[in-house]
Amino acid sequence: QMQLVQSGPEVKKPGTSVKVSCKASGFTFTRSAVQWVRQARGQRLEWIGWIVVGYGNTNYAQKFQERVTITRDVSTNTVYMELSSLKSEDTAVYYCASSYCGGGSCSYFDPWGQGTLVTVSS
Amino acid sequence: SYVLTQPPSVSVAPGQTARITCGGNNIGSKGVHWSQQKPGQAPVLVVYDDSDRPSGIPERFSGSNSGNTATLTISRVEAGDEADYYCQVWDSSSDHGVFGGGTKLTVL
Asked: Are the C-beta atoms of residues A12 and A84 closer than 8 Å to each other?
């Protein structure tokens, strides 16, 4: 069964960084891309960026370009999303999701991780 | 950047048909995917590539896409279908994922 398992909830202070992990099981991670999406309470889904796990290339939404880094560890089948210079507005549930990317396009997002709540508060 | 527009809410009685639209410029030229999200849960894919269903998703869920509008259709709506529904496409010009604003389906 294809599954993505994310790390636990985080509470961070403004100006610091958070690193969320996403571990795959039941499928070959290196043939996939991993997307990161966040959702503030009561708000819409917001796309953050992606990484092609096999090659390590990434692409980020312009809004997060200066603050986000997505990396991977193929030996442990794990992808990481680090967001720096945190603000209260970054308080949200962060999701990872698997997709396939190639030929200038990516496919649907499935499966999704269970989500990680990141709370930014002084 | 590419924009997807969904109605904020749709209401339907049990047993009736719900139609949720997703508007975008020439969206018919893109593959559209739909996810269902219930409160406190992660999204779940219910339709992909305009009209295909993942395994385990009931045949009551179907999709279409043409021109500037894609539509998710839920037939014989049940109370358990009450959720937020999001359309999603890939914008190849920016190489970014794009989500609609979401539609809350209420079963009366």
From this structure: no
B40/A89 Cα distance (integer angstroms): 19
Chain B nearest CA to A109, separation (Å): 7
Q: What is the rounded average pLDDT for all residues in chain B?
A: 97
Closest residue by Cα to residue A47 from B85, B41, B90: B90
pLDDT digits 0-9 by tens, B55-69: 999 999 999 999 999
Among chain A, residues having any CB pair with chain B shorter than 8 Å are 35, 37, 44-47, 50, 59, 61, 95, 97, 104-115
Nearest to B43 among A45, A105, A106 (CB): A45
Helices (H) and strands (E) in chain A, counts: 0, 12
What backbone torsions phi and psi does residue B80 show, to the nearest 5 degrees? -70, -10
